[in-house]
Amino acid sequence: MDKPYTRQELLVIAVARQIKDGDNALLGIGLPTIAGAVAKHNHAPRARLMMESGIADFDPVVPPMHIADACCTEGYSYAIDLFGMFTSITFAGYLDKAVLGVGQIDKYGNLNSSYMVSPDGKPERITGAGGAPEFISYAKETILTLKSGEFVEKLDYFTSPGYLGGGNERDESGIYPKGSGPSILITPRAMFKFDSKTKEMYLSALAPGVSLDKIKSKIPWELKVAQELERFPVPTQEELAFLRKFSPRSCFSTRVSNELLMNTAIEAFSQRAAFLEQTRKHGVIQNAAS
Q1: Nearest CA among 108, 111, 143, 149 for reference residue 129
Q2: Which of 151, 165, 198, 227 is the most buried (most CB within 10 A)?
Q3: Is residue 2 part of a domain?
Q4: What is the pTM of this model?
Q5: Does one domain contain both 258 and 198?
């Protein structure tokens, strides 16, 4: 019997499917890196995953704690500094895709990840810009994820450029590579793309069990809808198995994730103990033979 999946798992795996084999992909911390790990270990083994800090072509074994967490990897091809990541990789045009999280987003894919205004009118800091303005500016394509952020008519703060005021404004600005910009926004309940002419966001797919009215209720403008909705990606059993082992905390409640982490740790310790026992026996046999 197929395993059921959570909304969070649906989101992570939908994002992972956007990373293709051979892509040079810059991953934000958190969900983007987890999605990158799923992609690399399932359908895109030759994808070159990169961290903002300059760690390039890494193979994650656990979710990173920060943007320079080399200890989260099984290995990586090379490392450069932050300035080098912006210049030698991003500005030079070698970045195929950037995968970034969203705090606020408007209809043209412009982003706020700096601060939001609370209901009582006070500004509250959120994650901060980091390298997002550079990556969405110069990557050939940007994949956006929204888990707990919001759609707004007007950003509380303009952090990173999508399609600015829409139409050809981004391309005609002379600042950004022609044809660059966000290609898709993925949430746990829907996927959105951007019209090729107006650059306005439109609904392209609904997650299983989600109604159109539910999505429209979260969006403060008159949302356009594709004439024919695409099928939202459904996780495979292989994707779920890897994701739950790699990052159970991103998929479940604290109680369930702690149980999965404990089971994974016990399994790892058991395998290690079996390996050491075999090594010990082999050593005893070798010593006896000599």
Answers
A1: 111
A2: 151
A3: no
A4: 0.84
A5: no
